[in-house]
Design a protein that fits this description.
mainly alpha; 74% helix; two-stranded antiparallel ribbon; 185 residues
């Protein structure tokens, strides 16, 4: 069990590193391209490709991170009004269904990456194999599916609270002081 915790922490640090640098790269490429165009009337041909790669990486690698932190998009109007037992049941069913969908998407995106690899296509400016761009899609879907299973498991294991993510208790179960403390961090 301790080895899994260490592995989880390593994956968390890798996700944070990848997401941080992907966002920095996006910002540098977009701002750099605008400045280059304004000052020199020239835009580097690789800027769009690098931005696109960083956006794909940030989007798909962010699935797992958002699930872990309970920051994924949710339609919570019904959920917020529901009593504890209903929210608890939903906190088990929804991550399970989401994980299944993400694992199916992992499979199909892996097939797509395999097809792109076999085609041997490259990007136009960097002439980098295109599958490098797309390899993060099945990885992100898979890690997201695993994280949603973990979210389901923590809700099964802890009967006294509802968790939106493994690192995030449901805000409906917190008192006002806890919420205020979190917003001032």
């Amino acid at each position: 069990m301790k080895a899994l915790k260490v592995l989880d922490n390593i994956i968390l640090k890798i996700e944070e590193f990848i997401l941080s640098y992907a966002v920095i790269i996006i910002a540098l490429m977009v701002v750099g391209k605008a400045i280059s165009r304004a000052l020199f009337t020239y835009t580097p041909p690789f800027a769009d490709e690098v931005s696109q790669i960083a956006i794909v990486v940030a989007t798909f690698m962010g699935i797992s991170y958002a699930a872990r932190k309970g920051r994924h998009i949710s339609m919570s109007a019904f959920y917020d009004l529901a009593p504890f037992k209903v929210r608890k049941a939903l906190a088990i069913i929804i991550p399970l269904v989401t994980a299944i969908i993400l694992f199916v998407l992992t499979y199909y995106s892996a097939l797509y990456v395999q097809n792109v690899y076999q085609d041997g296509t490259v990007t136009s400016a960097l002439e980098m194999p295109k599958y490098y761009l797309y390899i993060f899609i099945p990885i992100g879907f898979f890690l997201g599916g695993v994280q949603f299973l973990r979210n389901m498991w923590i809700n099964i294991k802890d009967r006294d609270a509802v968790y939106l993510g493994t690192d995030a208790k449901d805000y409906n179960d917190k008192d006002k002081k806890e919420i205020m403390d979190e917003t001032h961090l």
